[in-house]
Amino acid sequence: MKIGKYKGYETSLSEPGILWVRFNRPDRKNGMTSVMKRELIETLTQAQMTDAVRVIVFIGSGDSFCAGDDLKGYATAMRENDDGQTPLIPPGHEHGIGTYAGLRAISQALNTRIRELDKITIAAVNGVAIQTGFSLALSCDFRIAATEARLGSGTLRFALLPDEGGHYLLLQHIGLAQTLDFLMRKKIVSAEEAKNLGLVHEVVSGEELFAAAEAFARDMAMGPQVAMRLLKRTVYNAAEMNWPQALDDIAGKTAVTDHHPDAEEGVASFKEKRSPKFNEWLV
Question: How many CA atoms lie within 13 A of 143 on its CB side?
Fold first, then answer.
């Protein structure tokens, strides 16, 4: 896959298979544009299909993770004199049906792409994560926040809705009562408050954030990738299934993992009292 600079973000790859996606518009609080979202969808599709990538980490530049959409330049920001990776199309929102189409094809599609990834995703929330940035972080499997971070939807402050799936994601993380309280009261909470609510897994100082995210990503990348990816998918599936469906789903995936070389290595290493060497199939 292409590693380098894109429209509004840049990517880098570190061992053992950690793809870093860094939002690089600090002067705009890393605000998102339609172009940026579409290119992110393509980057994540490439990451899904690239064996060299095992874990994806999102992080921001400056004092923000992502403070929402860049409303002033949503349609054409940073496209002048450059065709970018994806052809420019209308961003929608010019009328009711255009808003519906824009959300389904671009904004909601980005969070859907993140949630569809079989590989582990981590949001390293270095600063403000509002609206788009908040829902993107909630779409990831894990969230590590700097103490300086502030997280929330805040859409009602503008009489708008959390239209990129933020309401659904909040429901999954904190339940009905807390979601209504969070959204209706327009909460933007500190990292510690977010952790207490169950929205963030870990809080560290800003100076420690990159190292903490890297250590966590490395641990995930060293695990048995086939079993981890199938486990991730079956856990997400279970959240939407009934008991018989969840049992059948994990049985089908176990038929794969039980006969994979990583499982053979796991059993052998246990018997030989040594650390397992997983993912030889990726070498």
Answer: 30
